[in-house]
Amino acid sequence: MNIQAGIKLTAAEAALVESYNEQVGELPGDGATLLARDTLLSDLKEAGLPTRRVEAWHYTDLKALLKSVPAFLHGASAQRVEPIVPGSTVLSVVNGKAHTRLLPEGITAKSYADTLLDGSAAAGLVARDADDVIGRINGSFVRDGLIVEIAEGAAFEAPIEIQSVQNCGQVNTRFPVRFGAGAKATVIERHLATGEDAALVTSVTDMRLADDAEVTWIIFQSEGEADTHLAQFKAELGANAKLRLYVINGGGKLVRQEIHIAVAGEGSDLTLRGINLLGGESHTDVTFTVGHDVPHTTSTEVIRNVVLDRARGVFQGQIRVAQDAQKTDAKMSCNTLLLSDDAEFSAKPELEIFADDVQCGHGATVIDIDHTQLFYLMARGVPENKARAMLVNAFVAEIVEELEDETLVEALEGVISDWLEKHA
Amino acid sequence: MLEIKNLHARIAEDGTEIIRGLNLTVNDGEVAAIMGPNGSGKSTLSYILAGREDYEVTEGDILYNGESILELDPAERAAKGVFLAFQYPVEIPGVATMQFLKVAMNEQRKARGEDELTTPDFMRRVKEAAAELQISPEMLRRPLNVGFSGGEKKRAEILQMALLEPKLCVLDETDSGLDIDALKIVADGVNALRAPDRSVIVITHYQRLLDYIVPDTVHVLYKGQVIKSGDKTLAHELEANGYADIIGAAA
């Protein structure tokens, strides 16, 4: 592909183009795959990174925030870590390269790179819409990932952890996941850094839940302090399917996690719970859209944010209810604990309702530590710093406890209290 | 145990003076009742003793075992043995009751230079004390005070008092919202803690609680001052005649 110098590119945009030209010869794929990559890259170059003038990116001016792009590093090899929940079935992706292994009955995982090579993934290398920068960058550069299939009716005792670990460079992965009818599983999609050198991570998870599937999916992101993490999670729910999605952000310098859900089958239900633990100079954006397209579907979204230092956070939540989607029940709330005068959080709820017999609501609050609660704990002898930590922990632990599975709750509470201990 | 000298205090936010030259002495092992009409400063006094920041002491002093505690924060006072049983115990969603009890007990022990309790020792103590107060294990599994009935909250306060073994217990309207059975359980819990080296201040609006926790002394608080002190018969007198006579005599 021949890329011409046109409008002036920012340093990061130029680095992306240059990095593509360097890597294109070795990126896996047949002719169709390459064509799809070229198209995405050229669209990216033409549109540039989005600024605040692009509605979907209004609070995350990527053009200004993304200052540089680290080069792809051959031979980078991070160390795998223990799963969050002991005894989990672990699927690992190390510096963007998938490792497959023998798995319990009912689950298979294949390398995504193989489908790039044989051209079957090419049709999926398209942007969602004109503002889909994550789709463009990821589709241009993606090297590997895992195609995970959970068999019809399968159920597992232990959680499945998809562990994407990196220590530097570029990591671009995709995870197409299919749950068969009636399948039940808990999956932890974990992105973490084991090194301090900067990385650019993009990841796209594309999930289908067949009818009656019940899935708890936990995205836990703890990238390094210098890392950029741009991720997309897409899911389509069949009839009576239930998806419980937890998104926990506890790392990264520049983070955008998009979530796009279609509650497409009658009786399907989405529960979204978000925990954003934000500190330092980081910028973290969770952008969520849910489309209620058929009657009798439900969704609830609760986002809890703890913001320290000079961190900034964003939650954009959009609930769309199609004209036919009568009896939709959707509730969204975003609560923020701002613990520093320099911390910031922006919440933008959006309801687009075309049906007339629905229940939809949203609310957002910003609070400080409750002084009556603080006094109560201190009056029992708990020193102030510890009492504060308990209350901050309680603010987010409340939604973790909804998971009910004791091992999982304990593991996630451990992750959260570790973060608070380190940062607060 | 406790000596309050010419205490003046106001609400920090708006400067309203609530306590206006209060004097009170409570000896070791004494149970002192503080009574008074609404708005006399009873609850404010209990908050000031516990160290709540919303009130500012402008004059006078509070001596606890001979030392001023005005400069100590609530946690430091608690570690020294001051305990306030709240009129309205605070609900804290997301904090498990057991976890809270363990942290509170161990933090106080740490502050006093004692070893932390082992988990089995902690569990045994809680189990025994909870059984005395008819507190179910199910209640202890809930988040702190969340979804507790009024009576359960008050019993949970006394449970904390029993476990923390304070030296100065301040009970702020512990009888409010209790039916007679719950009142007896709470009173038994308090009476079980009476000891020569432990003093109790019972703040109440009504004589009723004092039939079950019999005080050594009774003090009437009005407009931020103790206007009359006596023995337990003073409480009966108040019950029979109301506050008007005493207030009239003092005015």
TrEMBL record, chain A:
Q: Please report the stretch or stretches of sequence annotated as the SUF system FeS cluster assembly SufBD core domain.
A: 169-395
Q: Which GO terms describe its biological process?
A: iron-sulfur cluster assembly
Question: NCBIfam families, from UniProt?
Answer: sufD
User: What is the designated name of this protein?
Assistant: Fe-S cluster assembly protein SufD
Tell me the organism.
Answer: Rhizobium subbaraonis
Lineage per the UniProt record: Bacteria, Pseudomonadati, Pseudomonadota, Alphaproteobacteria, Hyphomicrobiales
UniProtKB/TrEMBL annotation, chain B:
Q: What UniProt keywords apply to this chain's record, in alphabetical order? A: ATP-binding, Nucleotide-binding
| Superkingdom field | Bacteria
Domain ABC transporter residue range list: 2-248
Q: Does the keyword ATP-binding feature in the UniProt annotation?
A: yes
List the Pfam families hit by this protein, alphabetically: ABC_tran
Report the InterPro entries cross-referenced here.
Answer: AAA+_ATPase (IPR003593), ABC_transporter-like_ATP-bd (IPR003439), ABC_transporter-like_CS (IPR017871), FeS-cluster_ATPase_SufC (IPR010230), P-loop_NTPase (IPR027417)
- Molecular function as annotated in GO: ATP binding; ATP hydrolysis activity
Q: Which family does it belong to?
A: Belongs to the ABC transporter superfamily. Ycf16 family.
Name of the protein this chain belongs to: Fe-S cluster assembly ATP-binding protein
Q: Which organism is it from?
A: Rhizobium subbaraonis
